[in-house]
Amino acid sequence: MFGVIVLALAAGLATSLVIGMITGAIVAFLGVHPILVTLGTMTAVKGIAVYATNGGVIGGFPPPILFMGNGTLLQVPVPMIVFILCAVLVAVIMSHAPFGVAVRMIGSNEKATRYSGVATDRMVVGVYILSSLLCWVAAVVMMA
After folding, report:
1. Domain ranges in the chain?
2. Dihedral over Cα of 1, 142, 126, 22: its sign
3. Largest CA-CA distance found in the chain, in angstroms, rounded
4. Quick one: which of 33, 47, 62, 100 could link to 94 by a disulfide (CB 3.0–4.6 Å)?
5. DSSP 97
6. How many helical (H) and strand (E) elements, i.e. helices and strands, does the chain have?
């Protein structure tokens, strides 16, 4: 039973990774406006989800999954713990990792960042991948 849960979560993680890569690649390499790509991707993913579930609700999750959305550890709700962990992780990445520094530079001036030797297109794809992975975490908590 535990193996099935891990497999399902890994499949969701892989799916979000692919969606982030596709979305980021369309924005970075094809130059399509980000809001259009994001809305288009959202519509496509929703359509696939409705098709896969025949528009029905999926329920009957096992207790370990339900714990992630409804459980508490030391009187602190698990979703709050997940949020704090994600916030700390993103803060560390944005302030100490080369990726985060490059992303902040792109936010200041993308053209100057490109001239300074940073592969801005790859960084933009990385931002979309990170965003998609964080959406996967949120989706797991909301599902639970």
Report:
1. 2-143
2. positive
3. 53
4. 100
5. S
6. 7, 2
Residue 62, φ and ψ in degrees, nearest 5: -70, 160
Note the pLDDT tens digit of each residue in 19-65.
999 999 999 999 999 999 999 999 999 999 999 999 888 888 888 88
Distance CA 25, CA 127 (A): 11
Q: How many residues does the chain have?
A: 144
pLDDT digit string, tens, across residues 4-21? 889 999 999 999 999 999
Angstrom distances, CA of residue 2 to CA of 6, 7, 95, 133: 6, 9, 36, 22
Show the beta-strand stretches assigned E in 10-106: 72-73, 76-77
